[in-house]
Specification:
Aldehyde Dehydrogenase, Chain A, domain 2; binds NADP nicotinamide-adenine-dinucleotide phosphate; alpha/beta; seven-stranded mixed beta sheet; Aldehyde Dehydrogenase, Chain A, domain 1; 19 strands
Amino acid sequence: MIGKNIVASAYKDSHETPLQAINPATGLSLEGDFFKANQTDVEDALVAATAAFETFRNIHKDKKAAFLNAIADEISAIAEVLVPRASAESGLPIARLQGELGRTTGQLKLFANLVAEGSWVDAVIDTAMPERQPLPRPDIRKMLVPIGPVVVFGASNFPLAFSVAGGDTASALASGCPVIVKAHPAHYGTSALVGAAIIKAIEKTGMPKGLFSLLFDDGYAIGSALVLHPLTKAVTFTGSYNGGMALVKLAQERKEPIPLFAEMGSINPIVLLPEAINTQAEELAKKYAASITLGAGQFCTNPGLMLAISSPELENFKQVLAAEISKVPSATMLTPGIANNYIKLSTAVHAEDGVELLSASTVKNAELQNQSEAKVAQVSAAKFIENPKLHEEIFGPYSLLVVANNVAELEQVIAVLNGQLTVTIMAAADEIRQYQSLIHLLTNKTGRIILNGVPTGVEVCAAMQHGGPFPATNDSRFTSVGSSAIHRFVRPLAYQDWQQEFLPEELKDSNPLEIFRMVNQQLTK
Ligand code: NAP
């Protein structure tokens, strides 16, 4: 099963020297050959996806839901092979990947339920008013429809939940769009296994061939060709700022510009208000040491910045934080590139004016390669404000504590922050009332604002917002996690003066979406 491109639902013969997956903990190659896609594969995949789109978009919602559930079942059926392979390719522990597998199948089932329930299409019905003066009103009915083939870039840091059958693929398929995945080069084998599971689900549920394709590459050629292909109608990406923005530019410069949803860097500030520090310094220090180092810090919601006002209690917080960080064992990072980048950036930042290392991990495993050393540093608010280099993401188990002299200075720090996926406030109940203007400033900077918690751990649910102001994402109106993620792949279509028999089911008078009609009629009276 591992070893061939899966293009337009069929295995293809090899084109050139195979690619091999690397175990980042040992530096050794793993079993399996994977073949680089070429321009013909890109063409085949998009042509097949476009043909599949015409069939798939008209398939009954219950069948689409059954297909999404079948993908979840096929993935669960290979868990015993898939989880160890994902662990070998990513360096992530088995337990974490078991959890991620549950999240992946859970996401697929969530979208299956959403599709079966059906109201996500936001049907709105404005019935005709033939007697209206001075002009009669036509019958207008609107709903959301899928836009066409979607290209998904698998992310390195979630080999299952943000990859081949992750949230992007699940939400795109749920919307009625075919998907072409560009596998992340950090986990070829995991990608191939999940890709084969999707193909099985397509076959078992009678879905059109070409609904899903998986292409491999170890460079930018195939990803760029997929974004530029005229039949591609939308793209999703999770990764670096540079990668994301390069692809945004490509998508915008096409003859037909298309939406590209890029989730990029975020440092997820934690604001430690004085009373919270005064009463819980030790507890908070332990909580954040754990959050900063979870999964070797390789989360887009990793708390890379802590903001506080100088006080004796803050000194206590720093001491406990430093002690906790020094005890965290170094861990293998996802790829040699990510590990090297982490070492480079976390070392370079200490050469910046005023930055002082507070603590670094002292527990190392000499046998493992590509390890990260957890680190926390501190800097004054004044130095932070004047140095934009300190506002950038350092992907890994790293966090910078910024110490302000007073609330006004803390607000100045917040004012210079970039857009974020999350912001967390640690506050006593009275402080929420007392610091309203500061909290208001923070809401302008983020997609999710957390009270007295940690940003790591993103719930997959209807209300989740995983997307924030630039540069956290390039379009803060959308989320890549939770059921609203489906809205990235649809557009509104209005039908004017159509007879009942020719309308989509969702827009017929017999559709039980009374609420939309009622609300609408009240509004137009
Ligand atoms: P990446 O370098 O951004 O790559 C992600 C995917 O996009 C890969 O498949 C890559 O292809 C492709 N790609 C990147 N630049 C491209 C371009 N200009 N044109 C076409 N395709 C392009 O991310 P990564 O490899 O996962 O990790 C690198 C860094 O990204 C990390 O050190 C971290 O800073 C950041 N990152 C952030 C998050 C987050 O959630 N914020 C998550 C993961 C990574 P190839 O690899 O085949 O070249």
